[in-house]
């Protein structure tokens, strides 16, 4: 029998051995990315501590109506618009003169897009890692890329580079427009999906799953706009920039710090427009966010349209309120949206989306072309994707918004 001291020594040695195994396991777990390690990364001069996670490919992609961290993303609420020649359809009642729809718990531009779930952790010298990457829809045909911003078509402003007409006369509205579909006599339907960049998952869905003929409009306050707009152009989508404008019944704070207001002077609004136009490049047109009140006042909207035109940028209005929309005016090349497709965050609005898509078909049959606009919501994207897949079978052709814009302009 071993002495008591020897038995105690063996027990201590055994305990030390077990502890060593546990410590080694923890070290391996941390360094392999499977443990509760924490990594400190610099964000805009501040230190932010983040959990060290497994490789992106092994992580679950967030739901389409959530941000990458699972928190609800920012949404944009569109105005309602009705075509007088069509049967009345379902509406959401609002205050008199109100030009937008509101949904519960709907954030707006007032928080500048600073949603905690959208913070991107970057390392100096590395590109943005904004979202999980998912495979593009296999049903989509590969489209030609839209060219990126041409330095010749940019001018310097105090806020960054903004569009200009090139010395050779080239304009953004032509250079960055998607190719028109072949003219076979079929009615053309174009749709703009707006509010992009504010929710990473929905933005990626719109870029990857919608047909390339669908035009995409990006919010000026979104993060990583250079990354997202390049991704959209590479997928064949022509892009627009959204201009927040004053509407009826809206809190002006909801338009963000660069909102265009009737209470501002001409010079103040033009300075804000410079800031907005410098957020990213490669867009062929601008479009309003809200703006029914701003668009009805010629002294407010006219300088904006002139500056866009002088920059070679077209304009697409969805308020129906401006008396100068719908063609080639002194203020530039302008188009007017025929229908607003309802933003549908859940399946309860599915039928409303289908009715407005059907209304676009009726308008296209009557006029030869129709232009719709909507905002990036889960069910809306689902329905547009399914609808576009069968569009050709029903005798229509999907067209980029620039094609319908030029068609409207040629009639005036």
UniProtKB/TrEMBL annotation:
One GO biological process term: carbohydrate metabolic process
SUPFAM superfamilies for the chain: Glycoside hydrolase/deacetylase (SSF88713)
Region (Disordered): 52-78
Gene3D superfamilies in UniProt: Glycoside hydrolase/deacetylase
Annotated Pfam families: Polysacc_deac_2
Alphabetized PANTHER family for the sequence: DIVERGENT POLYSACCHARIDE DEACETYLASE SUPERFAMILY, UNCHARACTERIZED YIBQ-RELATED
Name of the protein: Divergent polysaccharide deacetylase
The species this protein was found in: hydrothermal vent metagenome
């Amino acid at each position: 029998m071993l002495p008591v001291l020897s038995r105690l020594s063996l027990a201590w040695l055994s305990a030390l051995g077990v502890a060593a195994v546990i410590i080694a396991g923890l070290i391996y777990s941390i360094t392999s990315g499977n443990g509760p390690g924490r990594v400190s990364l610099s964000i805009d001069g501040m230190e932010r501590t983040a959990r060290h996670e497994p490789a992106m490919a092994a992580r679950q992609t967030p739901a389409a109506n959530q941000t990458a961290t699972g928190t609800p993303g920012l949404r944009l609420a569109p105005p309602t618009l009705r075509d007088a020649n069509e049967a009345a359809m379902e509406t959401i009642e609002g205050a008199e003169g109100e030009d937008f729809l509101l949904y519960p718990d709907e954030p707006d531009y007032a928080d500048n897009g600073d949603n905690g779930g959208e913070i991107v952790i970057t390392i100096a010298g590395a590109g943005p890692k904004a979202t999980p990457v998912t495979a593009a829809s296999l049903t989509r045909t590969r489209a030609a890329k839209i060219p990126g911003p041409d330095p010749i078509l940019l001018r310097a402003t105090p806020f960054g580079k903004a569009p200009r007409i090139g010395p050779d006369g080239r304009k953004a509205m032509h250079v960055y427009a998607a190719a028109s579909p072949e003219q076979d006599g079929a009615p053309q339907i174009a749709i703009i999906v707006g509010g992009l960049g504010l929710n990473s998952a929905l933005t990626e869905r719109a870029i990857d799953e919608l047909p390339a003929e669908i035009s995409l409009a990006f919010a000026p306050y979104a993060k990583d706009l250079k990354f997202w707009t390049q991704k959209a152009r590479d997928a064949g989508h022509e892009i627009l920039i959204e201009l927040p404008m004053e509407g009826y019944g809206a809190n002006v704070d909801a338009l963000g710090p660069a909102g265009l207001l009737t209470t501002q002077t001409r010079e103040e609004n033009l300075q804000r427009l410079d800031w907005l136009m410098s957020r990213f490049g490669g867009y062929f047109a601008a479009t309003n966010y809200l703006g029914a009140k701003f668009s009805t006042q010629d002294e407010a909207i006219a300088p904006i349209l002139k500056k866009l035109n002088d920059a070679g940028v077209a304009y697409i209005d969805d308020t129906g309120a401006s008396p100068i929309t719908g063609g080639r005016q002194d203020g530039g090349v302008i188009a007017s949206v025929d229908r607003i497709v309802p933003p549908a965050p859940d399946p309860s609005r599915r039928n409303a989306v289908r009715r407005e898509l059907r209304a676009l078909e009726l308008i296209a049959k009557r006029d030869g072309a129709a232009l719709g606009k909507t905002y990036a919501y889960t069910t809306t994207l689902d329905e547009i994707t399914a609808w576009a897949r069968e569009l050709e079978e029903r005798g229509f052709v999907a067209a980029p918004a620039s094609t319908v814009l030029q068609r409207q302009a040629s009639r005036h």
